Structures are given as C-alpha cells and as structure tokens.
Amino acid sequence: MLMPSNRPRFPVVLENVKIRRASEADLQQIVKLSEKLGRDESAMDSMVSPLPSEFQNPNWILKNIKGENAAVFVAEADGKVVGYSLGWISQPWSYKAKRGYICDCFVEKAYRRRGIGKTLVKAMLEWFRNKGVECVEADIYSNNIPSLAMFKGLGFKEVSKRLRLIFESRQ
Ligand SMILES: CC(C)(COP(=O)(O)OP(=O)(O)OC[C@H]1O[C@@H](n2cnc3c(N)ncnc32)[C@H](O)[C@@H]1OP(=O)(O)O)[C@@H](O)C(=O)NCCC(=O)NCCS
Fold this sequence. Notes:
Blueprint lengths: L11 E3 L2 E5 L5 H18 L13 H9 L3 E8 L2 E11 L8 E9 L8 H15 L4 E3 L7 H9 L18
Bound molecules: coenzyme A.
C-alpha cells in the first residue's frame, strides 16, 4: 500500500520564515552571509584566513545557484535573507556512487534556535534524494557544537577525523 509521504515540500514556511531555492536576486545577501560564515570558520580554525576567499566569490556562489548539480536554499524573514545552505553533487575518486556535499549552512545570530538551520539542511537533503545521490556528507569542526548537534540530529554519523600537525616554527 502506498503511504502518504511526510517529506517536506519546498518552499516551506516556518513561523514567519520561508525556505526556498535561491535566485540570482539573492546573490548579494548570500555573499554577505557567506562572509560571516568565513569569519566564524576562521575563528574556529587557525589555518583559515579571515579574509574573503573563493567561497565568498559572487561568481562561484552564482554558479552554485544556477548549476545543474548544485543548489542553494535561502531562509527569508522580515523581508531579507537570514540564512542559506549550499551544496553540490559529485562522485569523488574512489566513491562507488554519487555523493551530496553540504558545503555551507549559516543562519544569522538573531534568527538561530528556531529550526531554520535544520530546515535549510533538510531542503538540501530532499534535493539530493531527488537527484539520486546515495549519501550526503559535510565537514564540521570538532569544536562546532551547534552544528554537530544539528547534523547528528538529522541522522548524520561521524565517518573520519582529520588530523593536522602545525610546525612549531609557524605557530
Ligand atoms: C549551525 C547553525 C546553522 C544552526 O542553525 P539554527 O537555525 O540555530 O539551528 P536549528 O534551530 O535548526 O537547530 C537544529 C538543531 O541544532 C542543534 N543546535 C542549534 N544550536 C545549538 C546550540 N547553540 N547548542 C547546542 N545545539 C544546538 C540542536 O540539536 C537543534 O535541534 P533542537 O532545536 O531540536 O534542539 C547556526 O548555529 C549557525 O549558523 N552557526 C554558524 C555557522 C556554522 O557553524 N555553520 C555550520 C558549518 S557550515
């Protein structure tokens, strides 16, 4: 018997927040949020520069908004973009099937703890599922407690640990 699907259909409307696919018109606001994400990551990782990188490059973000194998979702509240998620599909060397990768998920501080981050990730998961990927991955810093809790709450499991040695002369 076919059971009715309880999967979300996008756009989703939380209380006063709309989650939808990003369009080119959202680009500048997404760039600003991605700059904040870049600064957060720099605060969590001494190897990451606080200066904007290719990840904040408007052309790169636009490529993801428009790409066939990439997607950007935004959360819109109070007439502005207050959060976004960005990911793509690829088949990394040695993988036996297509993998979805969530590169970014960011919510403005004033809008956190309302379920927006989780819904932005769920939007990506639904999109990946419809594209036939077999698994979805994200790299999360070990000290990023909110993000780890969010991804684990959605069913993600730890599969590896990245080790790093920083030469003393460079510290
Ligand atoms: C991680 C982030 C996206 C979460 O966004 P959010 O909208 O606040 O998250 P949600 O309200 O959807 O919460 C989802 C779950 O995350 C966890 N969580 C969120 N904030 C948390 C916190 N401060 N402490 C502990 N757990 C937290 C909880 O498990 C929560 O589920 P619950 O509400 O049922 O308890 C947000 O904190 C953020 O933008 N952080 C900075 C950027 C970042 O680190 N991004 C992740 C790497 S790309």
